[in-house]
Predict the structure.
Amino acid sequence: MKAFRSLTIACACGLALAGCAGSKGDTGLQGATGPTGPQGATGPTGPQGATGPTGAQGPTGPTGPAYAGPGAAPVVPVWKFAVMSDTQWGSDADKKNPNSVAVDIINQLNAEFIAKGVKFVVAVGDVTDKGCTAIPCAPMQTRAAFAQALYNAGIGFFPLRGNHESQQLGALEFQRLFPQTQNGVNNATPADALAITFQAGELVSIPAKTGTTFSVGSSFSSPWELPGLLGLSYSFDYQNARFVLLDQFTPADNSFNSIDEQEAWIDRTLDGRPSGGHAFVFGHKHLVSDSHTDTLFGANPSSDPMGQDDFIKSLSDNAVHFYFGGHDHMHLDSVFTTTDGLSGSVHDLVLASDSYKFYTPLNPSNDVAWDVPAFGHARQTRISEDLYEIGYYIVTVDGPRVTVEYFAVPAGYAGALPPTPNYELTLTTTPALAGNFQSKGTFGYSLNGREFLVPQGGSYTGISDSFATSASTVPTTLSIKAGTNGSVAMDPLGVYPMTKAVDTGWTARGADTSSDVLTLWGMGDLGAPSTDTYVIQLSYAATGVATDGTFGLAVKDAASGKWVNVVSKNAGGTPTFVNGAWTAGAALGTFGVDTTKQVAWAVVNVTGGTFGVTTFAP
């Protein structure tokens, strides 16, 4: 089930996934995997070996979700998960962060996740600072215990190890303290972790356990080729998505481990994701970042080029848009390519810190310092970057569309800007976070859309896309008629410019629109309330429409859920209706309908949103 998404400057190759009449459900595809013989020579998921009678299609799950036609993802309710980063802690000066764990930050993030209604939380490693030197391991027991608030709220928790827990003892304790990574059964923390005591004077206490165990996810697997990674590297399915979490550290059996050794499992796991669904991949270390030189593949971004290429191609071929990592304690979204710069790419999303440490970029960047000499060109295209913030991410999955919202609170940096390269900000007490988290911006993608990378000074007119609900319906066509990326956003050191990653996605038209519905992400800089002036145009399929300014290009108002004139969301400009085609020179706020070509257009500076052609709500 390969699906290739190319990312190129101002142009991308999209893919309309074939529709499918009814899915067999998560377990139905492989049944109960029957007796799977001795698993063939190919292990758990093998080629089903001489798998005999494939089971009786298992209990076929709950018939799986239906499909909504060409290019559509499974029809499932909108759902959310959260992603958090490193939670190690140094000095426990405020007596709220025992055993080298950022308990005070964890507690406040847990409250955010519960309020946001997420189904589960992924933590990308370095869950402690001191790791494990004995079993039981107090730091890891502490981290496990303070996931209890999530369990009490019925929210799953799926962590990874980081380099701070890289020891064999860390692997063994991880398997023991987080059994859900092997089977999805949450709220099963061993009693010794929940009973751990802290030094006198600590101001935090472990939440009392409520409720019973509960399951989140299905189809759990780990690399059978590396039995010591059971529950350390693991995958599972939830709704219309597959999650793959990668551990690059010492396994429980003290055997050799690398991502190269896991690549066959990664390939078959991604290839077997839910039909028409998403895949999200996580690790502790990034593919490239701005402070730490070491990566998922070795000492620097040029290490193990063949392994990197295999990995990035696998992600790209299987429609993985985001690889989530931690380790570098800053927010950084980059598009990172294979070593040839052509064969594949993925958004390498480094997550803001949830720890006491906050790093600063190097100059020159790791990409320039290592990839340019090794391969003759840079591989990193920067999309957004943010330093010295305590943050988390809410990922909303809405059919084929995914939106990531980044929330953060300043960690208290008061130094000069730009900062000194490689400066490290450290905290000894936790800032007040509750009530202070602010949305720093949203970004996203859709399986039925396209991505366009527009450099500074580049034209938006290369952005175009179309969508049809079925072969028998008239497609809706998007085109950006005018506009230039006028951003001057740079990396925090003021050395490297940012590029805009503009993504499109589609929903089939309903009774309330005369067009299919467009979702547009990425027209603005991270967190900016408005962007450059541009002209957006959508086609529609209707006759006899009003030409008095009450019908045209609309955007869904987030607060009311109503369709409103898109120009009402502009920063500035005067709404002015034109009965006819757009012409060059139309001012911000001008909008119109060309009934001859059946298109609606508007001159806007909105950063994105949900667009349709319809009658505006009063």
About this structure: The CA atoms of residues 228 and 252 lie 5 Å apart. The chain has a mean pLDDT of 90.
